[in-house]
Structure formats: C-alpha cells, structure tokens
Known about the structure:
alpha+beta; 4-stranded antiparallel β-sheet; about 20% strand; about 40% helix
Amino acid sequence: MSDALFEAKSKFIERFGDGGRLRAIRAPGRVNLIGEHTDYNCGLVLPMAIERYVFGICRTRSDSRLVVESTAFPGERVDIELDGRIESRAPQWTNYSKGVAAEMLKAGIPLVGMDLLLHNTLPVGGGLSSSAAILVATGLSLLAGGGNRMDADRLALICQQAERNYANVPCGIMDQTAVASSRAGHAMLLDCRDHSKHFVPIDSKELRVVIANTMVHHELSDGAYAARVDSCNYAVSFFQARDQSVRSLRDVSPEQVQAAKGTLDDTTYRRAKHVVTEIERCRAAAELLGKRRYEDVGVLMQQSHDSLRLDYEVSCAELDFLVNESLEAKGVYGARMTGGGFGGCIVALAQPRMAEGVIEHLRHAYKRKFGIDATVFSTAAAAGAGLAD
C-alpha cells in the first residue's frame, strides 16, 4: 500500500471510526499538454493523467445518508439525505460531491448511504483538475458502495453535468474524461464533439513532464471563466448568421476569423482567434508527439501560451514568469500555462535526465522573484481512475 493510501485510510478512521469494509478509489489529476479552452467549443484537447491523486476512502452506512469530508477542506462536510432533495450551497467544494449523487439518482442509478473521505495529493485550484478528480472519485465510490459498474465515458458525462448544474461551472468534457479514461504512458487526443479518443504514446525514457504550481489559486465559478464562454457563444452566433452549418467554433476556420477582424468587436475576435488556432495547434501537436518531434511540439506550446496570454487573456505574471524561466532551462522543449488560467500551473516537456535540474531552477527562480515556495514536480503519464487496492 502506498504511503498516501495508508494515510488516507488512517484519516478516514480518525473521522468516521473503525470497523466495516473500506473501499479505496484513486482518481488522478490531469495536465493538458495543449488545447486550452477548446473543450467547451467542441474542439480538440491533448491531456494526460498525472501521478498526483484524490483518494476516495468509503464505507457504506445503514441509513440513506451521504456524508463526505475532505482533507483539503478541514472542518467542512457534506451531509445529505439521498432520499431527499439535494441542493447546491456553500462551501463550494461540497457541490461537486452532492452534484454527482444528484445526477446519478436522476439517471436512475440506485445509491446506498455512505461515509466518504476525499484525500488529496493533488493541489486544489492549481489547474490540474482537482475538481474533476473529486467528481470522479465520488462517482466511483458511490458505484462501488452499491456494487455497481459504469462505463468511463458515461461516468465522465454524469460528472460534467454535476459540475455544470451544481458547481455552476460551464465546463467542457475534457477534465472528467481525462481523469476517468486516461491510459498509462499515453496522452489522450480527445475530440470534445464526438468524444472519440486517440492515445499518443509518451515514452518516459524520452520525456518527463514538469509541472510548476504558481500557488496563485483561482475559482472557476467566479465569472471570468463564464465570461470567456459567453464570448465564444457570441462569436458562434456571429459566424452562424453568415454560415448556417456553424454549430460551434470548431466549425470556423482561421481564415474566417481573420476575415471577421474589424467587424467583430476586438475582444470577441481575439477570443475566437485563440480557440480556432488552438484547435489546429492541438491536432498538429498530437501528430508531432507521436513522431517524437519534441522540439516542434515545444514551438506549438509556446505559441499556445502566447495566444492564451494575449488573445484569451487568462494568464498572469506568475505563469508568464515560470514559462519564460522554463524555456531558459537546459533540456526543456517547450512550456505553457495549463488549465483554466488566472493562476494555477505551467507544464513543461523536458528530457528525463534534466528534469530534476529544471525543477530546482524553477523553485529557486520563483522564490527569488515572488518570495513564494512554488510546488514543482515531474510526472509520467498515469492511468485513469480506478480501485486503489
């Protein structure tokens, strides 16, 4: 048993008492190598699961209550009656677990009462999909408690609905799918329109993924994320009025966006420009990664970061600094911000033998610049969620 899993089980017993059969679920975080803010535009994304997790330790109850605590949010808990009305309310993180339970019940899945502890080795609010890991860990725990199974794609869709309807985040399908369905040693090229997947090998002997957390935390339900979604929806209506076949920005070409410059307002133009060009970068990066053309993938990552910084405006000074410092380090092919933005993490592709040097460089440089101890680590591509023991 891993140290983290042993710690999670020990903390469960501290909170809920000993006895009974414990089940353990492991839900990884994810990092998106390229393809940011394209998922809710029916585009392409290239995520992979990472070796940091939310563990769900659960035990069934004799009543129909769902009681959930999280080691990331001490003193707060979910305590709801599964036979009653489930409503979203503060604190925000609890709405993820409540939402999964509500959406499962809505789908006709029988649930049993349960005590559940969520234990994180994954940074919260760092752009590594801690929320999706909570969703999937809760979902798999509820399924395990009732002796049920579910296809990973269906679970991802239920978790997406939970995040939209209960956490009020208008998210796409990428995070939940990456957490639920990733394959060890691979990135996932995911088509967010038809949910098809193509797995691209990432050889851990050739590549190590370095993740640096700015420690600047963001809350995706605070309106900035939703404002980007609204801009994209407005752009779709603009192009749709000129071409009835347009259903999303996935259907718009870079040439069409360029032609709209000066007609679309500047903000909407730049938002659309990012999404449409990012979809093309994602497609190209997956192909180049499969061919082991890592330097060329790095160029696309830099283009992606510049687009997120200038056109989508979701970067910040701390993210920009870490990206620039990564590119100065030996053995780095490319770097960019990852996740929703407004803080969170950057991701860098590095040569394995140079990864530890990159980590130390980023830690020291960030401390000198901002006086903050950044969390920096490297990871291989991990497997998706499942039983932990």
